[in-house]
Amino acid sequence: MRPVLRLAAAALAVSLVACSKVTPANFDKINNGMSRQDVTAILGAPDEASGASLLGLSGGSATWRDGRTTITVQFINDKVVGKSLDSSGN
Hints:
By secondary structure, the protein is of the alpha+beta class. It has helices at 3-18, 24-29, 36-43, and strands at residues 48-54, 57-66, 69-76, 79-86.
């Protein structure tokens, strides 16, 4: 492979890793009471989401993954009530 192509491939790989929004820094930006829309603005669309509704209350969770890092956020009526960060890859 030509040196220029190697350099371009390396730059692309670094930029893809740097673009991840699933980071401890972004996890720290999420606070109880934030809207689901605000969380999505920070982390992007979740990789998976679940929810249920009962007697006028809706609840659920959303999960974002990137490599070994997973962020899970719990919502009630589309407001953050809890969050967790797992960087172990489990």
